[in-house]
């Protein structure tokens, strides 16, 4: 699944366009590397997002087939 779509489906970021813009601006890194919105995420990846002074870091536990309300099962906050 694409990074921008995963961020939206997992409800880390509300809109896919916002996730896309954040990745384009270099604010999203996966496993220590800055990536583009088209990056294919995998289970076990560690994602870090910079929102101003705040940094959110989490590990991808599961990649869903469809969007749902089980957000807690998708990511583990580090």
Q: What does this protein structure show overall?
A:
The structure is a single chain. This protein has 78 residues and is α+β, with helices and mostly antiparallel strands. It has one domain (3-77): Structural Genomics Hypothetical 15.5 Kd Protein In mrcA-pckA Intergenic Region, Chain A. 21% of the residues lie in helices and 27% in strands. The chain has a 5-stranded antiparallel sheet. A hairpin with a 2-residue loop joins β1 (28-30) and β2. The longest helix has 9 residues, at 16-24.
Short description:
By secondary structure, the protein is an alpha+beta fold.
Indicate the topology:
Blueprint: H1 3-9, H2 16-24, E1 28-30, E2 33-34, E3 46-51, E4 54-60, E5 75-77
Antiparallel strand pairs: 1-2, 1-3, 3-4, 4-5
Key traits:
78 residues; alpha+beta; Structural Genomics Hypothetical 15.5 Kd Protein In mrcA-pckA Intergenic Region, Chain A; 2 helices; 27% strand
State the distance separating the first and last CA atoms.
21 Å
Structural class, by secondary structure, is alpha+beta
How is the largest sheet built, in terms of strand order? Answer: 2-1-3-4-5
CATH architecture type: Roll
Beta-strand residue fraction: 25-35%
What's the level 1 CATH class?
Answer: Alpha Beta
**Secondary structure: helix percent:** 10-25%
Query: What's the main sheet like?
Result: 5 strands, antiparallel
Number of strands: 5
Low-confidence stretches: none
SSE order in H/E notation?
A: HHEEEEE
Q: What would you call the shape? A: globular
């Amino acid at each position: 699944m694409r990074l921008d779509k995963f961020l939206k489906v997992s409800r880390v970021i509300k809109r896919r366009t916002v996730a896309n813009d954040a990745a384009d601006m270099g604010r999203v890194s996966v496993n220590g590397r800055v990536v583009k919105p088209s990056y294919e995420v995998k289970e076990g990846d560690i994602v870090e997002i910079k929102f101003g002074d705040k940094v959110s870091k989490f590990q991808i536990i599961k990649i869903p087939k469809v969007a749902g309300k089980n957000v807690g099962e998708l990511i583990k906050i580090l």
